[in-house]
Amino acid sequence: MTGLLDAQEVSVRYGSLAALDGVNLCIHDGQRHALIGPNGAGKTTLLNVLGGSTKPQRGTVRFDGRDIGRLAPAARARRGINRIHQRPAVFPTLTATENVVVAALPRVIPRRPWWPGGRRRAAQHLAGPLLDQMGLTAVAAVPAGHLAHGQRRQLEIAMALAGRPRLLLLDEPAAGLSAIEVGRLVELLQALPRAVAVLLVEHRLDLVYALSDTVTVLRDGQTLAAGTPDEIRTSPLVRQAYADGVA
Ligand SMILES: Nc1ncnc2c1ncn2[C@@H]1O[C@H](COP(=O)(O)OP(=O)(O)OP(=O)(O)O)[C@@H](O)[C@H]1O
After folding, report:
1. What total number of domains does the chain contain?
2. Which residue from 32, 58, 36 is spatially nearest to 47, judged by alpha carbons?
3. Which of 20, 111, 193, 199 would give a disulfide with 12, using CB separation of 3.0 to 4.6 Å?
4. Does residue 174 belong to any structural domain of this protein?
Protein backbone atom coordinates (compact mmCIF):
# COMPACT_ATOMS: atom_id res chain seq x y z
CA MET A 1 0.00 0.00 0.00
CA THR A 2 1.42 3.45 -0.84
CA GLY A 3 0.65 6.65 1.01
CA LEU A 4 1.82 10.23 1.39
CA LEU A 5 4.62 8.85 3.53
CA ASP A 6 5.75 5.29 3.21
CA ALA A 7 8.52 3.90 5.45
CA GLN A 8 9.53 0.31 4.80
CA GLU A 9 11.69 -2.07 6.81
CA VAL A 10 13.37 0.74 8.77
CA SER A 11 16.12 -0.43 11.11
CA VAL A 12 18.33 1.65 13.41
CA ARG A 13 20.96 0.09 15.68
CA TYR A 14 22.97 1.67 18.45
CA GLY A 15 25.74 -0.85 19.03
CA SER A 16 23.99 -4.10 19.94
CA LEU A 17 20.64 -2.37 20.64
CA ALA A 18 18.01 -2.44 17.90
CA ALA A 19 16.14 0.86 18.43
CA LEU A 20 14.09 0.04 15.31
CA ASP A 21 13.96 -3.38 13.74
CA GLY A 22 12.24 -3.60 10.33
CA VAL A 23 9.43 -1.11 11.03
CA ASN A 24 6.85 -0.24 8.34
CA LEU A 25 4.68 2.87 8.55
CA CYS A 26 2.28 4.31 6.01
CA ILE A 27 0.57 7.69 6.43
CA HIS A 28 -2.08 8.89 3.99
CA ASP A 29 -3.01 12.42 2.96
CA GLY A 30 -4.83 14.16 5.79
CA GLN A 31 -4.54 11.20 8.15
CA ARG A 32 -4.22 11.65 11.93
CA HIS A 33 -1.79 8.90 12.88
CA ALA A 34 -0.49 8.32 16.40
CA LEU A 35 2.62 6.42 17.42
CA ILE A 36 2.52 5.00 20.93
CA GLY A 37 4.37 2.44 22.98
CA PRO A 38 6.26 1.95 26.22
CA ASN A 39 9.40 3.90 27.04
CA GLY A 40 12.29 3.00 24.77
CA ALA A 41 9.97 1.46 22.14
CA GLY A 42 11.59 3.50 19.33
CA LYS A 43 8.98 6.25 18.78
CA THR A 44 11.37 9.22 18.83
CA THR A 45 13.91 7.29 16.77
CA LEU A 46 11.25 6.71 14.10
CA LEU A 47 10.30 10.43 14.12
CA ASN A 48 14.00 11.25 13.75
CA VAL A 49 14.29 8.90 10.78
CA LEU A 50 11.22 10.44 9.09
CA GLY A 51 12.40 13.99 9.82
CA GLY A 52 15.88 13.21 8.50
CA SER A 53 17.99 13.73 11.64
CA THR A 54 18.75 9.99 12.01
CA LYS A 55 19.88 7.86 9.07
CA PRO A 56 18.65 4.28 9.32
CA GLN A 57 21.08 1.44 8.56
CA ARG A 58 18.36 -0.29 6.59
CA GLY A 59 15.03 0.56 5.01
CA THR A 60 13.48 3.20 2.77
CA VAL A 61 11.44 6.35 3.37
CA ARG A 62 9.32 7.64 0.51
CA PHE A 63 7.34 10.86 0.57
CA ASP A 64 4.85 11.75 -2.12
CA GLY A 65 6.20 8.85 -4.16
CA ARG A 66 9.88 9.90 -3.97
CA ASP A 67 12.73 8.37 -2.03
CA ILE A 68 13.76 11.01 0.54
CA GLY A 69 16.19 8.78 2.45
CA ARG A 70 19.21 10.89 1.56
CA LEU A 71 17.60 14.29 2.23
CA ALA A 72 18.58 16.43 5.25
CA PRO A 73 15.85 17.79 7.57
CA ALA A 74 15.76 21.22 5.84
CA ALA A 75 15.29 19.60 2.43
CA ARG A 76 12.48 17.43 3.83
CA ALA A 77 10.85 20.57 5.29
CA ARG A 78 10.92 22.13 1.80
CA ARG A 79 9.13 19.02 0.49
CA GLY A 80 6.45 19.37 3.17
CA ILE A 81 7.56 17.43 6.27
CA ASN A 82 7.69 19.67 9.34
CA ARG A 83 8.66 18.66 12.85
CA ILE A 84 7.43 20.14 16.13
CA HIS A 85 9.94 19.43 18.88
CA GLN A 86 9.33 18.62 22.53
CA ARG A 87 10.88 21.97 23.49
CA PRO A 88 9.30 24.75 21.42
CA ALA A 89 11.91 26.14 18.99
CA VAL A 90 11.02 29.83 18.63
CA PHE A 91 13.10 33.03 18.41
CA PRO A 92 12.61 34.48 21.94
CA THR A 93 13.43 38.13 21.14
CA LEU A 94 11.19 38.30 18.06
CA THR A 95 7.45 38.92 18.41
CA ALA A 96 4.99 36.13 17.64
CA THR A 97 4.25 37.79 14.28
CA GLU A 98 7.95 38.11 13.42
CA ASN A 99 8.51 34.45 14.26
CA VAL A 100 5.81 33.39 11.79
CA VAL A 101 7.11 35.83 9.15
CA VAL A 102 10.62 34.34 9.45
CA ALA A 103 9.18 30.84 9.10
CA ALA A 104 7.06 31.84 6.10
CA LEU A 105 9.74 33.75 4.16
CA PRO A 106 11.34 30.75 2.38
CA ARG A 107 7.97 29.48 1.17
CA VAL A 108 6.02 32.58 0.05
CA ILE A 109 5.83 33.62 -3.56
CA PRO A 110 5.30 37.39 -3.79
CA ARG A 111 2.71 38.62 -6.29
CA ARG A 112 5.28 41.15 -7.62
CA PRO A 113 8.66 39.44 -7.06
CA TRP A 114 10.61 42.45 -8.39
CA TRP A 115 9.04 44.81 -5.80
CA PRO A 116 11.43 45.62 -2.88
CA GLY A 117 10.14 43.97 0.28
CA GLY A 118 7.50 42.04 -1.65
CA ARG A 119 8.45 38.69 -0.16
CA ARG A 120 8.37 40.07 3.38
CA ARG A 121 4.98 41.67 2.79
CA ALA A 122 3.60 38.38 1.46
CA ALA A 123 4.92 36.60 4.57
CA GLN A 124 3.30 39.26 6.80
CA HIS A 125 -0.04 38.68 5.05
CA LEU A 126 0.22 35.00 5.91
CA ALA A 127 1.19 35.57 9.57
CA GLY A 128 -2.08 37.19 10.76
CA PRO A 129 -4.42 34.35 9.74
CA LEU A 130 -2.01 31.71 11.06
CA LEU A 131 -1.71 33.40 14.46
CA ASP A 132 -5.50 33.67 14.48
CA GLN A 133 -5.84 29.96 13.62
CA MET A 134 -3.58 29.13 16.59
CA GLY A 135 -5.45 31.49 18.97
CA LEU A 136 -2.53 33.93 19.27
CA THR A 137 -3.91 37.17 17.80
CA ALA A 138 -3.97 38.89 21.21
CA VAL A 139 -0.24 38.22 21.72
CA ALA A 140 0.91 38.84 18.13
CA ALA A 141 3.14 41.76 19.20
CA VAL A 142 4.58 40.02 22.29
CA PRO A 143 8.16 38.69 22.12
CA ALA A 144 8.03 34.89 21.98
CA GLY A 145 10.28 34.65 25.05
CA HIS A 146 7.53 36.31 27.12
CA LEU A 147 4.80 33.88 26.06
CA ALA A 148 3.52 31.08 28.28
CA HIS A 149 4.80 27.59 27.44
CA GLY A 150 1.47 26.59 25.87
CA GLN A 151 1.45 29.72 23.72
CA ARG A 152 5.00 29.02 22.53
CA ARG A 153 3.84 25.53 21.52
CA GLN A 154 0.94 27.10 19.58
CA LEU A 155 3.38 29.56 17.99
CA GLU A 156 5.66 26.76 16.89
CA ILE A 157 2.71 25.07 15.20
CA ALA A 158 1.79 28.37 13.47
CA MET A 159 5.42 28.59 12.28
CA ALA A 160 5.29 25.03 10.99
CA LEU A 161 2.04 25.77 9.14
CA ALA A 162 3.69 28.81 7.55
CA GLY A 163 5.94 26.36 5.73
CA ARG A 164 2.79 24.89 4.07
CA PRO A 165 3.49 21.35 5.32
CA ARG A 166 1.72 18.24 4.08
CA LEU A 167 2.86 16.26 7.11
CA LEU A 168 3.39 17.52 10.65
CA LEU A 169 5.50 15.40 13.00
CA LEU A 170 4.44 16.20 16.57
CA ASP A 171 6.75 14.95 19.32
CA GLU A 172 4.84 14.90 22.64
CA PRO A 173 3.11 18.25 22.05
CA ALA A 174 1.35 18.13 25.45
CA ALA A 175 4.60 17.71 27.43
CA GLY A 176 4.90 20.35 30.14
CA LEU A 177 1.50 21.95 29.48
CA SER A 178 -1.15 22.67 32.12
CA ALA A 179 -4.57 20.96 31.89
CA ILE A 180 -6.10 24.14 30.41
CA GLU A 181 -3.27 24.47 27.86
CA VAL A 182 -3.68 20.81 26.88
CA GLY A 183 -7.41 21.32 26.30
CA ARG A 184 -6.73 24.34 24.08
CA LEU A 185 -4.02 22.48 22.15
CA VAL A 186 -6.35 19.54 21.48
CA GLU A 187 -9.02 21.89 20.07
CA LEU A 188 -6.46 23.63 17.85
CA LEU A 189 -5.03 20.35 16.57
CA GLN A 190 -8.53 18.98 15.91
CA ALA A 191 -9.23 22.07 13.81
CA LEU A 192 -6.12 21.70 11.61
CA PRO A 193 -7.02 21.55 7.91
CA ARG A 194 -7.19 18.08 6.40
CA ALA A 195 -4.64 19.18 3.82
CA VAL A 196 -2.12 18.49 6.59
CA ALA A 197 -1.50 14.93 7.76
CA VAL A 198 -0.30 14.49 11.35
CA LEU A 199 1.99 11.93 12.96
CA LEU A 200 1.70 12.30 16.72
CA VAL A 201 3.99 10.76 19.34
CA GLU A 202 2.26 11.07 22.68
CA HIS A 203 2.27 9.24 26.00
CA ARG A 204 -1.16 10.51 27.03
CA LEU A 205 -3.59 8.00 25.58
CA ASP A 206 -6.62 10.28 26.14
CA LEU A 207 -5.02 12.75 23.70
CA VAL A 208 -4.08 9.99 21.29
CA TYR A 209 -7.67 8.73 21.14
CA ALA A 210 -9.05 12.29 20.83
CA LEU A 211 -6.74 13.25 17.98
CA SER A 212 -6.02 10.20 15.87
CA ASP A 213 -7.86 7.99 13.41
CA THR A 214 -5.06 5.40 13.21
CA VAL A 215 -2.68 4.20 15.90
CA THR A 216 0.57 2.26 15.53
CA VAL A 217 2.01 0.66 18.64
CA LEU A 218 5.77 0.07 18.85
CA ARG A 219 7.48 -2.16 21.35
CA ASP A 220 11.21 -2.94 21.50
CA GLY A 221 11.74 -1.40 18.06
CA GLN A 222 9.04 -3.45 16.34
CA THR A 223 5.41 -2.89 15.38
CA LEU A 224 3.25 -4.59 17.98
CA ALA A 225 -0.13 -3.53 16.58
CA ALA A 226 -1.82 -1.04 14.27
CA GLY A 227 -5.47 -0.12 13.91
CA THR A 228 -8.22 2.31 14.83
CA PRO A 229 -8.22 3.86 18.31
CA ASP A 230 -11.03 1.45 19.29
CA GLU A 231 -9.10 -1.59 18.09
CA ILE A 232 -5.98 -0.48 19.94
CA ARG A 233 -7.88 0.44 23.11
CA THR A 234 -9.33 -3.06 23.35
CA SER A 235 -6.29 -5.03 22.15
CA PRO A 236 -5.05 -7.49 24.81
CA LEU A 237 -1.56 -7.35 23.25
CA VAL A 238 -1.40 -3.60 23.72
CA ARG A 239 -2.79 -3.78 27.26
CA GLN A 240 -0.09 -6.30 28.09
CA ALA A 241 2.64 -4.10 26.60
CA TYR A 242 1.49 -1.17 28.71
CA ALA A 243 1.14 -3.32 31.81
CA ASP A 244 4.76 -4.42 31.25
CA GLY A 245 6.00 -0.85 31.41
CA VAL A 246 5.01 2.57 30.20
CA ALA A 247 5.53 6.09 31.53
N1 LIG B 1 21.59 8.25 20.37
C2 LIG B 1 21.36 7.10 20.99
N3 LIG B 1 22.38 6.32 21.38
C4 LIG B 1 22.16 5.13 21.99
N5 LIG B 1 20.94 4.62 22.22
C6 LIG B 1 19.89 5.35 21.85
C7 LIG B 1 20.04 6.62 21.21
N8 LIG B 1 18.80 7.11 20.93
C9 LIG B 1 17.92 6.20 21.40
N10 LIG B 1 18.58 5.16 21.94
C11 LIG B 1 17.95 3.96 22.52
O12 LIG B 1 17.06 3.45 21.53
C13 LIG B 1 15.88 2.95 22.15
C14 LIG B 1 14.67 3.66 21.55
O15 LIG B 1 14.71 5.02 21.99
P16 LIG B 1 13.58 6.06 21.63
O17 LIG B 1 13.98 7.36 22.27
O18 LIG B 1 13.35 6.07 20.18
O19 LIG B 1 12.31 5.44 22.36
P20 LIG B 1 10.91 6.13 22.69
O21 LIG B 1 9.87 5.13 22.35
O22 LIG B 1 10.83 7.46 22.03
O23 LIG B 1 11.01 6.29 24.27
P24 LIG B 1 10.38 7.40 25.24
O25 LIG B 1 8.91 7.16 25.23
O26 LIG B 1 11.00 7.08 26.56
O27 LIG B 1 10.78 8.76 24.71
C28 LIG B 1 16.03 3.18 23.65
O29 LIG B 1 16.51 1.99 24.23
C30 LIG B 1 17.07 4.27 23.73
O31 LIG B 1 17.81 4.19 24.94
Report:
1. 2
2. 36
3. 20
4. yes
Question: Domain end: 142, 164, 186, which one?
Answer: 164
**Which of 10, 23, 45, 47 most suits a substitution to test ligand 1, by most atoms within 8 Å of the C-beta?**
45
Please report which confidence band the pLDDT of residue 240 belongs to, taking 50, 70 and 90 as the band edges: confident
Looking at the fold, whether 171 and 75 belong to one and the same domain comes out as yes
At which of 121, 147, 164 does a domain end?
164
Question: Is 55 in a helix, a strand, or coil?
Answer: coil
Bridge partners of 217, per DSSP, are 36, 225
Shortest-distance Cα residue to atom 16 of ligand 1: 42
Q: How far is the centre of ligand 1, averaged over its atoms, from the C-alpha of 42 (Å)?
A: 6
**Nearest alpha carbon, ligand 1 atom 6:** 14
Domain containing residue 128: 89-164
Q: How far apart are CA 243 and CA 174, in angstroms?
A: 22
pLDDT tens figures, 109-131? 655 565 556 677 878 888 999 99
What is the position in ligand 1's atom list of the atom closest to the CA of 12?
12
Q: How many angstroms separate the CA atoms of 166 and 150, rounded?
A: 23
Q: Where are the alpha helices (DSSP H) in 108-225?
A: 118-133, 149-162, 179-190, 205-211
CATH number at residue 183: 3.40.50.300
31 and 147 in a single domain? The answer is no
ipTM for the complex shown: 0.96
Residue 245 sits in the same domain as residue 129: no
Amino acid identity, position 1: M
- Nearest residue (by CA) to ligand 1, atom 8, is 45
What are 182-207's pLDDT values in tens digits? Answer: 999 999 999 999 999 999 999 898 89
